Amino acid sequence: MILRLRSVFECPGKKQDFDYDILPESLDYLTDKTFCSPINVSGAAENHAGVVLLKVCCRFAMQHECDRCLSKFEREYVKDFEHTLVLKSYTDDDELVVCEHSELDLDELVIGDILLSLPTKILCREDCKGLCLTCGKNLNEGDCGCDN
Predict the structure, then answer these.
(1) C-alpha distances out from residue 30 to 49, 109, 115, Å
(2) What does 22-90 look like in DSSP terms, one character per residue?
(3) Phi/psi of residue 53, each to 5°?
(4) Per-residue pLDDT of the chain (148 residues; tens, 9 = 90+)
(5) What is the DSSP secondary structure assignment for residue 106, as one 8-state letter?
(6) pTM of the predicted model, to two decimals?
(7) What is the CA radius of gyration of the chain?
(8) Which DSSP state fits 121?
(9) pLDDT digits (tens, 9 = 90+) for 27-45
(10) Cα 93 to the chain's mean position, in Å?
């Protein structure tokens, strides 16, 4: 979704709300990630004394494979993000999001935020026991009987 923010940048106090879904089919290019539901994106861009703040809430579910036991599972997420939007940046500040022509590709920003916020190690549960190193049995389903 392209947010057109010219009126927000021009008027202190102006606020622009949004609420929409990014469909999982549109994320097929993320071959190593599986979204089980649309990503619901809601929030607002608001001009606070000439500075535009973007607040976003994303709700979605993803399918994962546990890094310890290799079981497939789904997990629901609610992620909140905030950004400062500017028309031009005169510094190398990575915290600022530049909106050329007063427009912002919100999908691109949100997907980047989501991917960066996911943990590097994903477990089906905190106390996952993993697989037996000898026979390969999922130890979450019970003892395997191997001498370990």
Answers:
(1) 38, 15, 10
(2) E-GGGGTT-TT-EESS-EEEEEEEEEETTEEEEEEEEEEEEEEE-TTT--EEEEEEEEEEEEEEES--S
(3) -105, 135
(4) 999 999 999 989 999 999 999 999 888 888 788 999 999 999 999 998 878 999 999 999 999 999 999 999 999 999 999 999 988 877 777 788 888 889 999 999 999 999 999 989 999 999 999 999 999 999 999 998 887 6
(5) H
(6) 0.85
(7) 21
(8) S
(9) 888 878 899 999 999 999 9
(10) 21
Q: Which residues of 14-50 are buried (b: 16+ CB within 10 A; e: fewer)?
A: eebeeeeebebeebeeeeeebbeebbebebebbbeee
Locate 2 and state its tokens: 């392209």
Residue spans of the domains in the chain: they are 2-141
- Tokens 């915290």 belong to residue: 95
